[in-house]
Amino acid sequence: MRARSAVLALVAGLVCTACLSGFRHPLGSVRQSFIDKPLLGTWVCRSTDDPKPIDLTFVDFDGRQYLLQSDDRKGERFSHRVVSTRLEQATFLSLRPVAPKAEDEWTLLQYALSGANHLSLGLVDPEPFEDVLDDAVAVRERLAERLDDPEVIREQLSCTRQGSLGEQPE
């Protein structure tokens, strides 16, 4: 659970022990996953709640999945398996920790690229899906219906490509 808590702290800027912690399945299958080449590389990200930067590095793992490494710049490094999915006009990443400890639950993030140097990530809250967490199709359908709902997708991280002019050194 330590890696899961660290991912939530890094990606979402929060840890909620009374809340659901994740999804049972990725949003889409590996067979339908894709690599979005502009996403590859290292991004310096900041939460709206915490200005301390986090480095996220996306690597093409096998032509369909990413390896995502997150680094809090304090020596804590985590690796995640990532599957990408398109839903309506939106793109999503399904993350599952693989190191330092593998876990079974998935975190869902909506992502959007603005130009070559800006990435925004929004956390999909699992609570509105509590009654359908075991049904991947039902999760997809409900998410498609609620893409604009701020209670479902909360923007948490704003990122700039490492080395771009928008990056601010610590």
Tags for this entry?
2 helices; globular; disordered N terminus; mainly beta
Q: Which range does the strand content fall in?
A: 35-45%
Distance between the termini: 29 Å
Summarize the main sheet.
8 strands, antiparallel, barrel
Number of strands: 8
By DSSP (H or I, 4+ residues per run), the number of helices equals 2
**What's the overall geometry?**
globular
Q: What is the arithmetic mean of pLDDT?
A: 85
Helix content: 10-25%
Structural class label: mainly beta
Account of the protein in words:
With 170 residues, the chain is mostly beta strands. It has one domain (2-161). It is 12% helix and 39% strand. It has two helices and eight strands, in the order H-E-E-E-E-E-E-E-H-E. The chain has an eight-stranded antiparallel beta barrel. It is globular, with a radius of gyration of 15 Å.
SSE topology sketch:
Layout: H1 2-12, E1 41-47, E2 54-60, E3 65-71, E4 77-87, E5 90-99, E6 107-114, E7 118-124, H2 136-145, E8 153-161
Antiparallel strand pairs: 1-2, 1-8, 2-3, 3-4, 4-5, 5-6, 6-7, 7-8
Summarize this entry quickly.
By secondary structure, the chain is mainly beta. It has two helices and eight strands. It has one domain (2-161).
